[in-house]
Protein 1
Amino acid sequence: MVAEAPVRSGSRRPVPTRAPLRLVEVVAEESERVSTGVPELDRVLGGGLVPASVVLVGGEPGVGKSTLLLMALGAMSKRTKVLLVTGEESVAQVKLRAGRLGGCDDVEILAETELDAVCDALERWSPAVCVIDSVQTLWSQEIGGAPGSVSQVREAAARLLRVSKEAGVATFLVGHVTKDGTVAGPRVLEHLVDCVLQFEGDRYHAHRVLRAVKNRFGSTNELGVFEMTGAGLVGVPDPSEVFGRTPGGEVGAAVACTLEGTRPLLLEIQALVAPTDLAMPRRVGTGVDPKRLAMIVAVLSRHAGLPLGAADVFVNVAGGVRIDEPGADLGIALAIASAAKGVPVREGVGAFGEIGLTGRLRGAAQADRRVEECRKLGLRAVLAPAGTKGATAEAETLRQALSAALENPS
Ligand SMILES: Nc1ncnc2c1ncn2[C@@H]1O[C@H](COP(=O)(O)OP(=O)(O)OP(=O)(O)O)[C@@H](O)[C@H]1O
Ligand SMILES: [Mg+2]
């Protein structure tokens, strides 16, 4: 429960009416996108940063939000005026990180948490790009509640939005995801800002994935992949090379060819099928949608004759990547079938295709690009739904696909 003070109802001022315009009369200048100097970040933003836009960058603690944005500021400071407002770390801490990353000498920095002071600074200095790290530390005297409370965060974002539109400052807001992703988290701001980026990845692995959840100026399907190193985040231009390599001959592993935005991506899918005494066997997926996983398991039992009713099924996607796309269904099904039967998938096979509830395979979008990616990575065979151009093995149904892909199926 958050207490909010009632608004004072004074005498109402007359509001001047403004006549509507026809769209043809509206003058809109096409503003040039600015490169952030981090190619993977540019890709996720839809080809660069739009001037005067507000971008919310969310992510779990320690995933590397401050590192990513400081790198971008460092690169942009060579061309324009940039400002880092830090409320979380001291100036000295930021200096240490900047030393590790290198090339950040011209970044201007302000340690401030008072909202009015931050807005003032933006208006006075009017930098081209500003980073607020983080929006949860900003605090305004006029609003009740502690810093980070819903009313404070919402007010801070609304004020910054107005200032950045008026002063033409492209603003990155860093937001922490709270445990449930709701209260005082960046969720309450998603509808306000132009662009919401989510920085994901296992804190304990080096790879991080940046994706757009919302983008008013571009596609939300693009994906940026980074590796965290001692000298900062390094873009991974060819993630298939990293995530799609299987040792071969392993039971329970398959390579799925998915599509993330305009980029095909090979991913290793691992599965484990273990007998259980639970009345409700578990279906646990890391990186896959639980509903999709349950559906694939059901289709495997019903239409491919795999007895999974008394087994726990675990599925994991390599590298902490999350799959949202139905084209990966076949790869997931292959990994589960391989684990259930105890036979490996043939070496050098990549698969894609959507699985229907009837057990029939359906074509996936942009098949030719997926096939090409498999070729590029040196996979010998591409298993795809019937009618896919360029595939080396085609299958009408899931049952046919399994017998084509698994070694000596029993
Ligand atoms: N010397 C180093 N070598 C390798 N990785 C490092 C080094 N120093 C920091 N890191 C990585 O950087 C991460 C912290 O990055 P950063 O501070 O940018 O994260 P953040 O998302 O801003 O965190 P917070 O939520 O605390 O603000 C650490 O989890 C660690 O993985
Ligand atoms: Mg940080």
Note: The chain has ten helices and 18 strands.
Protein 2
Amino acid sequence: MKLYFSPGACSLSPHISLREAGLSFDLVQVDLRSKEIKSGGDFRAVNPKGMVPVLELDTGDRLTEGPAIVQYVADQKPASGLAPAAGTIERYHLMEWLNFITSELHKNFTPLFRPNTPEEYKVIARDTLAQRFAFIDGRLAGKQYLMGEHFTVADAYAFTITNWTRIQKIDLAPWPNIVAYMERVRARPKVVEAMKAEGLIA
Ligand SMILES: N[C@@H](CCC(=O)N[C@@H](CS)C(=O)NCC(=O)O)C(=O)O
């Protein structure tokens, strides 16, 4: 398999998931501004959306959309516990988290990274993010991970997006359960491996 990624982008979520699942894969770096593949080639030919992540399977089939990709990854190694079994109510709760992270966290961060977003809108986006973090903080009370005691692909995704608070200088101190959770996830050996491989940490 090949994972098309950009350092520190949302593709870190499937990257962590692939390592947590113990699957073998190659990393293909993409320049999101120029839409060039670092080793050569037009990324839009791989994904006409021009966005990472893309997971290219050994069959040549390509999967896009982070929440779909991480469920595919988890399902390749059911024993990893990265996702509850398909069809169970727990699996729907996992999808509930993935959808929340993608639509309520990820996409509220996006305008903060755009140079043409009006400053007044950035204030609104930050306020919305604060409300979402307050919700997550409440749900993490007394829990190790979003789904309970076990790390799942929802944690890989939540960690990846919440880590952007560092770039955006959003202080997580008002949400101590999230602060502890981020340290817990950051300390996982496969998370460290993924972050090193992307050049995010030494
Ligand atoms: N809906 C997509 C969104 C992916 C996405 O936002 N990717 C960003 C990086 S975090 C990207 O590639 N942006 C480049 C662009 O929008 O041109 C998903 O969930 O996978």
Note: The mean pLDDT is 98.
Protein 3
Amino acid sequence: MTFQLDSVVPWGRSFDEYVSMFSLTDTDLQSRILGCGDGPASFNGILAGRNGNIVSCDPLYRFSAEEIRSRISDTAATIGRELAENTDEFVWTHFDSVEAVIETRMSAMEQFLLDFSSGKRAGRYIDASLPQLPFLDDAFDLALCSHFLFLYSEQHDLGFHVRSIRELSRVAAEVRIFPLVELDATPSRHLQPVISDLESFGLQCEIVRVPYEFQIGSARMLVVSRVGSVPNA
Ligand SMILES: C[S@@+](CC[C@H](N)C(=O)[O-])C[C@H]1O[C@@H](n2cnc3c(N)ncnc32)[C@H](O)[C@@H]1O
């Protein structure tokens, strides 16, 4: 049986996982960063605490911390069960057990929940959804998208992926997306057509190895960059 979730769920990774998934350098971490689809990850809160320049956007942010907290506890039970039933679909070097995954993620999400209300007031958590974002051209140097685009290729079609990545490239000079596999760890059906479209639109695409692999065969990110001004849609 493959690892399946009924729909996109609130589940958040740790700061260290973000650094590995996107091969983030100290210079990257000092740039203006957009985390798109960050959900309840701790990346924003931790980076802001280190004087980073970070904004996250996600439709989840229309809810209160307490509403998000209760959805997280429903999700944790489902994910723990799915992981335990499908251990052979994952690489157990970063984590050595299902319990370690759940503990790391629950601790990251608790850090998010503690930061969320003040971060929202400070404008670091914005309720917004791809494929249209409420940011000016070039508002960011780097946009990161973890575990949303490509992972949910069955739920979101090629057109959605193309519009979303063009939009991310409008607001940020460089876009990094991880992983490039679907929920069952097969390569995303949209990856090659998306790259062809983006290249014909004048964007540069590169698939880059990263030092993070949890789903088997997933240790690659897509880097989309533009040279010069924002291409016209
Ligand atoms: C599996 S979670 C990943 C969370 C985080 N990026 C991480 O890796 O820990 C996917 C996130 O995508 C968000 N999402 C769903 N639809 C979206 C959209 N149209 N635009 C942006 N984010 C969306 C969900 O609310 C959810 O928080």
Note: The two ends are 41 Å apart (CA to CA).
